[in-house]
Amino acid sequence: MPADFKAPDDCETMLDVRAGVDATDRELVALLDRRFGYMRAAARIKPTRDAVRDEERKASVIAAAVKDAEERGIPGQVVADLWERLVEGSIAYEFEEWDRTRA
Predict the structure, then answer these.
(1) CA 54, CA 98: separation in Å to the nearest integer?
(2) CATH class of segment(s) 11-101
(3) Residue ranges per structural domain of the chain
(4) Which of 41, 47, 84, 91 is the most buried (most CB within 10 A)?
(5) Longest Cα pair distance anywhere in the chain, in angstroms?
(6) Which of helix, strand or coil describes residue 47?
């Protein structure tokens, strides 16, 4: 873990916890930036607008995230809800990119 924050088990104060949460949030946004970059790539690669929405892939992505979360002891339903929003937001973004690159 980076030196600017402690691992959760090493936290001794709420300042430690908040520093860890803030650092983790920055990492999550960086990961989202990368994920949305893949959505831009998908929009560029997919040959038709109809190919953007893939319900089978969506279900598979959400199920994999829930399985991974539950194996880590994280509430599966919380992750399912988050991933539903993430995937739907990603699909909407991909539609926008698909349209923008072909306008």
Answers:
(1) 15
(2) mainly alpha
(3) 11-101
(4) 91
(5) 54
(6) coil
Total count of residues recorded for the chain: 103
> How distant, in Å, are the alpha carbons of 12, 19, 74, 89 from that of 3?
15, 11, 25, 33
pTM, two decimal places: 0.90
Compute CA distances 68 → 34, 56, 61, 79, 87, whole Å: 20, 18, 11, 9, 16
Helices 55-71 and 76-101, axial angle in degrees (round to 10): 140
Contact 43, 99 (CB under 8 A): no
Per-residue confidence of the chain (103 residues) as pLDDT tens digits?
Answer: 456 899 999 999 999 999 999 999 999 999 999 999 999 999 999 999 999 999 999 999 999 999 999 999 999 999 999 999 999 999 999 999 999 999 8
